[in-house]
Amino acid sequence: MKFFRNNLFILLQIFTAVIFYRQFFFLGKLPIPADTIVGLYHPYRDLFSADYPSGIPFRNFLITDPVRQQYVWRKLAVDQLKQGLLPVWNPYSFAGTPLLANFQSAVFYPLNILYLFLPFSLAWSWQIVLSTLMAGMAMYLFLRNLKLDSPAAFIGGVIYAYGGFAIAWLEWNTLLHAAAWVPLALLAADKLTTDKGRKWPLVLSACLLSSFLAGHLQVFIYGFILVVSYLSYRLIRMEKSRSKHVKKAVLSFGIFILLSLPQALPTLNFILNSYRTADQSQLSEGFFLPWQNLIQFLVPDFFGNPATGNYFGVWNYGEFIGFIGVGGLVLAISSILLLKDATVRFFAAVSLICLLFALPTPAAALIRNLNIPFLSSSQPTRLLFLLDLSLSVLAALAFQRLHGTVSGRHRALSVSGRPLLFILNGMAVLFFATWLLVLVPAITSGQLPPPNQISLRNLIWPTSVFMLVYIFLVLFIFLKTEYVRKIFLWLFVVLIITDLLRFGWKFTSFSEPGYLYPESRIIKELKSDRSLFRIMSLDRRILPPNFSVVHGLYDVSGYDPLYLTNFALYAAAWDRQKPDISPSAFNRIVTPQASDSFLADLLNVKYILSYGILDNPNYSFIINEGETFLYRRQDFFPRAFLVNRQVVVNNAQEAIEEMYDLGVNLRLTAVSEGDLGLAESPLADNESAQITAYLPNLIKIKTAANQSRLLVLSEIHNPFMKATVDTLPVKVHRVDLSLTGIIVPPGNHEIQVEWKLL
């Protein structure tokens, strides 16, 4: 009993998580939006078409990214690690792209240890569960260190773990992990300035490193700025031994920077060679938090909800939701008005700064226009992470004030009762004004437009919650019987938890394990071909970018905020079907459609997936499932081949122009920027290039040549690529605008191409 009494609120955190994830624990469903795979995309939909002609119903179309990006990248990385390989390269998307350097693959994240002991989908699910638990527990420990009672720390932890930001990004399995370590880092920062122990600089380094490795750079950077600011604030307020604590802080940050280099350097290299450095196109609408979306702090689904298919607001819902519960918002605002200690001032300032730069204010516009690396192009709405964190702390501090008065000190409570009543009445006016705003068309014209009908329905629950909050807190303020007041205070707590859990359940997907990338007949047909080839889909509903990773199929498409500039140039000219490599319409999602182009031949595209029948004499029909058809292209180049001629150009634009002039003649001619010093002569029958091994990070090729030849490898040229000829290092050339060229000497040789971090 003593154990339960001493750890009651930690156990309540666990109990709350079990209730939230009840479908995982009791029904065997996974917290993965796999229902969108079989509900939205072919050929998976075709597997279930007999029972579900319109596709399997899915929970939330907005959260397809986890199964299109994070899940497949992490699975590929884990699979390579289990094979004893460092997961440097992903050969399955964008005709080849960095994997470890892709920050979101989170290769080095400590909790990846789960994948060594559990099946991947189960380990992934447990990571998601743990992200919620860790966020709540970390906030609980931080607040306890601020001398808050366990109930107040518990409330702060629940609000942080189940608030709008946490729920909206939960199933990405990266953002909440990055955010979960921040309260622990704040705790370590506190201890570093107050505790004489030597462990806290190391603890701070470990927390920062774990947040960094969790897989979301923007959340980490915002969290890092918060931790540095908080630590600086504490140090400035110190009166003694400040220099000693500054040295400890510098040591901690130095250790973190040193340990982060194995991830940071490859990622920086990737960023410098990625197309995003040239692509800063952002939609003005939705880049900042729209002013009208502030109403979502009161009524989260005022503009509808993508999970119910009726969202009508600015795109997108997940970027704008900072909801912390109606009761949580009452507490957070109360703390700003009622409490005056240093911690409140700090987190109140953080909240205001976050709103200042998340909303379309002049200050936020200035940051964007200054073109500050990373910050200017980053989505400012992600500041809702810091806003929710700060509001969670403020709410806990306010609850501490309320909870501390349940001890007969009624006079102390009456002092704070008036401001609290003022806040409650102010929020009541806001709710009344919101109802009036929604009902105005019905009052003036007798008809309520469909958007207003959605808002009206979604006002009922939060208004009901607020009415109960109002009643509970008013009774708590004015009743004098202590145990009765405790009852109303705990009813208030239950109401906060219920409000947040209902919000989370509505948005979060839980799916049957069998919905995770099931293999259809078409996929099995493609996998049965043991030769090296690439595929391309002519319809975005069919095998969307990155899905090929799970099946081990090489695709020319890809979906990632970062992709190599060399591929971007190639895809731009390919999609336009003319020698134009200026920035294309592709942004994150690259899906070339020109299947008849010689550029498809050059990239080793053998199979075409189409929605419906194709009438093309150059394609051979293989198989179809429902409306998904698989065709084989007649003309495609091998993955590696020798050429007998070189055309020298001065720049990339000249290269693509020459390539369009040559067309299919690129099978024997290569275009390069700079003379490679090769003599031109026809290829003899005994000259060849044959791939003998093709691994994710390594290609082995046997060549036979009568003179020095250029080996063209249909792999995107990139800075991670190294080559040897009979173990001797050789230069890797960029040829045919974006591909790889290696000079091989006469005779029989073994060429090795490897992808390395640096």
TrEMBL record:
Q: Where are the bilayer-spanning segments? A: 6-24, 124-143, 152-170, 202-228, 249-272, 320-339, 346-367, 379-399, 420-439, 459-480, 487-505
Q: Which Pfam families match?
A: YfhO
Keywords in alphabetical order: Membrane, Transmembrane, Transmembrane helix
Residues in the signal sequence: none
What protein is this chain from? Answer: YfhO family protein
